[in-house]
Amino acid sequence: MPTDLIPALLREYGDVTRVALCDYLRPRAPHRHLYNLVADYPRRGGRMLRPSLCIATARAFGAKLEDAVRSAVALELLHNAFLVHDDVEDDSDVRRGRPTLHTLHGVPLAVNVGDALALLGLRALIDNQATLGPRLAVHVLQEAERMARESIEGQAVELGWRRDNALSLSDADYLEMVLKKTCWYTTIYPSRVGALIGTRSDRDLDKFIRFGFFLGAAFQLQDDLLNLQGDRARYGKELDGDIWEGKRTLMLISLLRDATPAERERLAGFLARERRERQPAEVGWVRERMEAYGCLDYARQVAHGLAGAAAHEGELLYSALPDSRDKRFIRELPTWVLARN
Amino acid sequence: MPTDLIPALLREYGDVTRVALCDYLRPRAPHRHLYNLVADYPRRGGRMLRPSLCIATARAFGAKLEDAVRSAVALELLHNAFLVHDDVEDDSDVRRGRPTLHTLHGVPLAVNVGDALALLGLRALIDNQATLGPRLAVHVLQEAERMARESIEGQAVELGWRRDNALSLSDADYLEMVLKKTCWYTTIYPSRVGALIGTRSDRDLDKFIRFGFFLGAAFQLQDDLLNLQGDRARYGKELDGDIWEGKRTLMLISLLRDATPAERERLAGFLARERRERQPAEVGWVRERMEAYGCLDYARQVAHGLAGAAAHEGELLYSALPDSRDKRFIRELPTWVLARN
What is the pLDDT of residues A186-239, one digit of tens each? Predict the structure, then answer.
């Protein structure tokens, strides 16, 4: 059973991160076409899972809070940079309950703002030098470079699927894309960098890839499920937005696999159209077919399996460490990931 | 008079950079939607001015060639990253004689490819550690962060002008935008990083801002002039592309200042339209008015003044150094910048 430790720690480390983030989001010129927009997404809130996981991991391994904060801030800035470009690339309408940046200000300014956010992330990583020294700071930078590379490669794979109108994807294709696009920056990188800062050693960092993959994939599946079944008022994106966008979720992939030839053809036609040409009735039909074929239940089962595997890996990684709130936070995450809505 | 030293050194340092660049552009997966496209712009050629200036400055200050090569490679990668996003943001059609990346592959993939190129630049900067050690490598990274920040701010200013359809800009507005958008990454950063690597000290780096500003602004003015008067076969972009794009060049700014109220109104209407709605006859009229009002001659005069100032600053910076090919290369640049076509 999840306790209230996770919300409490997300609030605590989230606040620490938000305060440190202010240093990087100060108003300055050019205001109207750059820095006001740079501060928009970070100020829209977010649950601060990634920076909190980074700080908690560092502390579970014995680091001081202040040694991990800049890395947490950098992660949050890089996350927002991804979101801005991702929204442009997917032509999404809504982010965290408000219109996306390019919808408000056009693609040219939004692309430039995404670049500025990524650069602020780099600056926070360079600032690590003051607390971590140049050698460890460069090491964290190397981790960030790997993380961003994986994300960009995952994004290329997913954009390629849409561009080619890919219709015959396997669960393994989906999971590999999620490993790259979501897990690296959501769970693997925060764990690895936390451990790097906590232990000042990169000996066993690869073990965190398994833990982060299982946890991050369960997280992404739950996110995709919430897109279909979430509470419209509380869910910050468009409901059914993934279907509107033709996103290859596990539910869509399994529907394409299970559908009759006639249904598959209708789906292929739907997916071949531009987003703006898709009709609400068609979106409703896709959703209804997903339910009829049990695609949501199937995805829920896979998510449960992944969360179980994450819990097991967490056990292996953390059981030898002394008890702490941070350690308990990390070990409760696999359960929490599926319970959130 | 320019000698053949500049083309010779551009070829030599360009080749060194191109060879080292191959390490970062190796084919790998995902090929079709990422790394094949990442290699496209860098393989289209380019005169390699920026990496050559970086290497020449480092050597003029006593560095070994191999100490500067990674920084030169990083600069070339970052330059190409800027070009990809810049082409998206300006909706340009042609780059280095071929269709722009987003024209060929769509905006989503192009934005992602720009991100990947910037990340490869970061990797090259991290790789500096092996030859320069972590402390100097972080220092070069700080310079790169400043350079990218200036470029992004300059880009925001220029995009803002177009978005607001700015009609009353001064020469000073133009020069400040060029300082940020062009000079930092074309001339200031290569000089500063070269000097940093050559001297292993950051004492007098700010002196390079003046030299780089005068040289880079003369370079940009000449570039804008070539866009209007260049040889179509040799010029890699669209001829008159700047007018099609409504780019606020010094020629357009001075035309807006000198035009009659009726002409100004017609210009305002032309500039208010979307690029795709502008007509060839209108573009021809803008161009003809620029010539009639002597806007090109005016820009040529300003460019000459800037190049003269760059030569003077170069004298102050480099006269005390021992004679070398590299030193002569740098001191010939102000003349060469205006002579190239």
Answer: 999 999 999 999 999 877 899 999 999 999 999 999 999 999 986 655 556 667
Residue-range definition of the domain harbouring residue A131: 5-339
Q: Is B283 on the interface with A (CB under 8 A)?
A: no
Closest CB to A111: pick one of B33, B89, B116. Answer: B89
| Rounded Cα gap, residues A264 and A285, in angstroms | 12
Nearest to A133 by CA among B148, B137, B131, B145: B137
Helices (H), chain A: 5-22, 36-38, 40-43, 49-60, 65-90, 101-105, 107-163, 171-178, 189-199, 207-229, 241-245, 250-258, 261-272, 280-292, 295-318, 325-339
Residues from chain B that touch A126, judged by Cβ atoms under 8 A, are 138, 141-142, 145
Q: Mind listing the pLDDT tens digit for each residue in B51-61?
A: 999 999 999 99
The mean pLDDT value for B268-287 works out to 94
- Structural domain tally of chain B? 1
Q: What is the CATH number of the domain that holds A45?
A: 1.10.600.10
Contacts of A232 (CB under 8 A, 6+ apart): A239
Evaluated on CA atoms B189, B195, B198, B202, the torsion sign reads negative
> What is the pTM (predicted TM-score) of this model?
0.95
Model confidence at B237: pLDDT above 70: no
Nearest residue of A to residue B78 by CA position?
A115
pLDDT at position B233 is 56
Contacts of residue A142, defined as CB under 8 A and 6 or more positions apart, other chains included, come to: B126
Burial of residue A32, with CB atoms counted within 10 A of its CB: 0-12 exposed, 13-18 middle, 19 or more buried: middle
Residue A129, both tokens: 């030098």
